[in-house]
Amino acid sequence: MSPELQFFGATGEVTGSLYVIRHGKHTVLLECGLIQGGRKAEERNRDPFPLPVEDIDAVILSHAHIDHSGRVPLLVRRGYNGPIYTQNATRALCEIMLPDSGYLNEKDAEWENRKNADNGKELVEPLYTRQDAENCLSQFQSIRYQESLEVVPGMNVCFHDAGHILGSAIVEITFNENGSSRKLVFSGDLGYRDAPVMNPPRQIKQADAVLMESTYGDRLHRPFSETIEELTGVFHTARAGQGNIVIPAFTVGRTQDLLYLMAEHFDEWGLKDWNIFLDSPMGIEATETYSRYRHLFGVKLFGPDSHLPNLPNFHMTRSTEESMMINPIKSGAIIIAGSGMCSGGRIHHHLKNNIWNPACHLVIVGFQAFGTLGRRIVDGANEIKLWGETYPVRAKVHTIGGLSAHGDQQDLITWYSAFANRPPLYLVHGEPDPQAALQKKLETELQAPVSIAQRGQTISI
Length: 461
Fold this sequence. Notes:
The chain is α/β, with parallel strands linked by helices. It folds into 2 domains: 4-219 and 405-460, Ribonuclease Z/Hydroxyacylglutathione hydrolase-like (Metallo-beta-lactamase, Chain A), CATH 3.60.15; 224-403, 3-Layer(aba) Sandwich (Rossmann fold), CATH 3.40.50. 30% of the residues lie in helices and 22% in strands. The chain has helices spanning 39-43, 66-69, 72-77, 88-118, 130-136, 224-241, 254-264, 281-292, 320-324, 347-354, 373-378, 409-417, 432-446; strands at residues 4-9, 18-23, 26-30, 58-60, 84-87, 140-143, 148-152, 155-161, 169-177, 180-186, 209-213, 245-248, 275-278, 314-316, 333-337, 361-364, 383-386, 389-392, 396-399, 425-428, 450-452, 458-460.
């Protein structure tokens, strides 16, 4: 019987990645991501997993972003006690990101329960706690790039550099049975060809089935030189206007790209007149992790004997007290804070203190999922709500698409075109319009046998 793959997450959307692989008597979960995108979408995280937890023999994660790893603590809380396989650096990042996710869940439940108590409603429990997240970390087992490991009998996994964030992996799974083999390749999230820090995604030559992300399947990123030019304009305009620059940034990947570019263009952007704040405990830890694993990428983000970026006026604000000291600053601050989609974290405080100010520049540097606060701002919201209070959006909003950690349409086509045998291709991790555009382009240019994965669909490999 051929191995089977069933799609359960990131079908027609870009969060909540989750796929089930069945091979003989064994079942493996590929990805276990958190669903993001507003209260209604996030409530789905509480639903039962699509198969009994006791049936799962192993879990494989492509990278540490929460939309790919963020339900692992919940899985363990519900009884999973098997191995979780990741690349080495991904494991290190999960040790930072998953407990932080648990902490945010606790805070969200605490805020909800305050309102429920006032209205006589039933109290809620967090999806999982920080302790739940810390409990799951002992089950992680790490693999270096290009190493092959048998995860269940007859099924080997090998990770290749996806170029998306530190430790991100293209997942190559080989099934061996009765002297023959079949191969499934999952792209994970593929990096952009001009990414400032990461290497280009590794190309694979052969597969029997391919899963590929399609986040930006309908667009081309602007040339990177234009992105630098646009950022130069933002910094110069903000400097003349005497305001702050607020950047909601994903703490893993985008933050490190920004710090590298600021060091690289320090004089050109006039940054000596600014104070640069990394206001994110998790972002600080992630940057230190990038330093420890600097051998995985070729760019000099750090000094030779330092885990800090090469920026003379750089401030890391770990504690709440240090963060609050930024609040009175009305001009001359560049504030990098999470979360990247403005869905929680310290960025809410900086939006509260700045988004009403016409002199402020809000710089959006990553994908904003449907239903998130970041998406509403990008789509032109006139006002936003934070902690029950309404704030007008008067800041100048800049969307810098060229800093995406995801490849664009051409990157995706180029990556798939390396498969010499044109294997069946299934598009995941994308919204419907980008997926439809990418499907048409692949069929037209490469005559690719491509389809869009549907939730619950099962395929043979």
